[in-house]
Automatic annotation (TrEMBL):
Protein name: N-acetyl-gamma-glutamyl-phosphate reductase
Family stated for the protein in its record: Belongs to the NAGSA dehydrogenase family. Type 1 subfamily.
Encoding gene (name): argC
Main location, first listed in the record: cytoplasm
Active-site residue numbers: 186
Organism placement in taxonomy: Bacteria, Bacillati, Chloroflexota, Candidatus Thermofontia, Candidatus Thermofonsia Clade 1
Molecular function GO labels: N-acetyl-gamma-glutamyl-phosphate reductase activity; NAD binding; NADP+ binding
Pathway membership, UniProt: Amino-acid biosynthesis; L-arginine biosynthesis; N(2)-acetyl-L-ornithine from L-glutamate: step 3/4
UniProt keyword annotations, A-Z: Amino-acid biosynthesis, Arginine biosynthesis, Cytoplasm, NADP, Oxidoreductase
Pfam families: Semialdhyde_dh, Semialdhyde_dhC_1
GO terms for biological process, alphabetical: L-arginine biosynthetic process
Gene3D superfamilies the UniProt entry points to: Dihydrodipicolinate Reductase, domain 2 (3.30.360.10), NAD(P)-binding Rossmann-like Domain (3.40.50.720)
Protein task: Catalyzes the NADPH-dependent reduction of N-acetyl-5-glutamyl phosphate to yield N-acetyl-L-glutamate 5-semialdehyde.
Residue span(s) of domain Semialdehyde dehydrogenase NAD-binding: 52-178
């Protein structure tokens, strides 16, 4: 299992040495590096005691933002960043090829790599004792067969499945000290945060759940594509892969099946809108007959009252992209529809809570750091 590196002594420390209430601890190993013979000394949090991290795929939108966030993180120090095509970032930071990455020099690695590539790198890093937060889809689905059906290619690392699923507001207890974490997709994050309190309470009827999402163009990635060019996007709203065709449907339903298996099927309608960043999920969900609007809203208050990165609006107020864009959390709204149908809204920044900021939140949890370190 990967561990927190004590840089000053060039020794490795147990992940339990990072205590949220006590601060960081130095682990001074005695002969043999056996944890049974180790003793611990409190240490102030300084540059010498930061966790060493690497970023694979540093030139895409998520990788660039992740490096920006890591540089402001009080407990992390960037050791390397990779790119297969570029030699340096705009600020002069040198980039190396993924195959040259010195895994023995880091405690954790963030993978901002393509689907089908990332899983193999994750397996190599985990085998080297490095903790991993994977921002690709390779570890999100619990079944290799479902992955192959959804992404139409063999799974690159089936031995890592099932992986802890990195949506902290839902699965926080599985993330502490996890050796690797699957970072959720942006649409998935927004839809699940909109539905979670109802599904947790078993309040959803067996009627179909309709999730309409609208996301900025950065969600399509940095690679040039005709459909994301300015002239194709500007002045238009484009639905794509609607119904049950989108590859995020199995990911959303995988979690909903755990929360409330008797709920209705998901109908998913993502849209591309001419914005740089931001994602809004508008979800139409029907309650069981015994549920009222007020009772449902009380579930949201109970679920999100203590969540540091979730802002719950008063009943009837909707979430908007401008409230979440360029911020690291999510905004949730609950509104009345007709009959027993609610209209749920959740806004996030697709590159932040939908990707890089959530990856950092997961990193904090896996190492026992304050959850919002580097995020607020």
């Amino acid at each position: 299992m990967a561990a927190a590196r004590c840089l000053a002594e060039e020794q490795r420390a147990s992940p339990s040495d990072l205590n949220e209430s006590e601060g960081l601890f130095l682990c001074i190993f005695e002969s043999g590096g056996n944890l049974a013979h180790a003793h611990f000394e409190p240490a102030s949090v300084g540059t010498a005691h930061k966790l060493r991290v690497g970023v694979f795929g540093a030139t895409g939108y998520t990788g660039q933002l992740l490096i920006e966030l890591l540089r402001a993180h009080p407990y992390a120090a960037l050791q390397f960043a990779t790119s297969e095509r570029e030699s340096a970032l705009e600020d002069g930071t040198a980039l190396i090829r993924a195959e040259e990455a010195p895994l023995d020099s880091v405690d954790a690695a963030f993978l901002c790599l393509p689907n089908g590539v990332s899983g193999a790198v994750a397996a190599r890093a985990v085998a080297a004792g490095v903790r991993v937060v994977d921002l690709s889809a390779d570890l999100r689905l619990e079944s290799a067969a479902l992955y192959e059906q959804t992404y139409r290619m063999p799974h690159p690392a089936p031995q890592l499945l099932p992986a802890p699923y990195g949506l902290p507001e839902i699965a926080r207890s599985t993330l502490h000290k996890a050796p690797y974490i699957a970072n959720p997709g942006c649409h998935v994050t927004a839809v699940l945060l909109a539905l979670y309190p109802l599904a947790r309470a078993g309040a959803l009827s067996d009627a179909p759940i309709i999730a309409d999402t609208k996301t900025g163009v950065s969600g399509a990635g940095k690679e040039p594509k005709p459909e994301s060019m300015f002239c194709e996007v500007y002045g238009d709203v484009k639905p794509y892969n609607i119904g049950r065709k989108h590859r995020h449907v199995p990911e959303i339903e995988q979690m909903l099946d755990k929360l409330q298996p008797d709920r209705g099927a998901l109908i998913f309608a993502p849209h591309l809108v001419p914005l740089e960043v931001g994602l809004l999920a508008t979800v139409y969900a029907t309650l069981k007959p015994e549920w009222t609007l007020e009772r449902a809203y009380a579930e949201y208050q109970a679920a999100y009252a203590g969540e540091p990165l979730i802002k719950l609006h008063p009943l009837g107020r909707v979430a908007r992209i401008r409230e979440a864009a360029h911020r690291n959390g999510a905004v949730v709204g609950v509104s009345e529809g007709a009959g027993n149908t609610l209209i749920l809204t959740c806004a996030i920044d697709n590159l932040r809570k939908g990707a890089s900021a959530q990856a950092l939140q997961n990193f904090n949890l896996m190492f026992g750091l304050p959850e919002t370190a580097g995020l607020v």
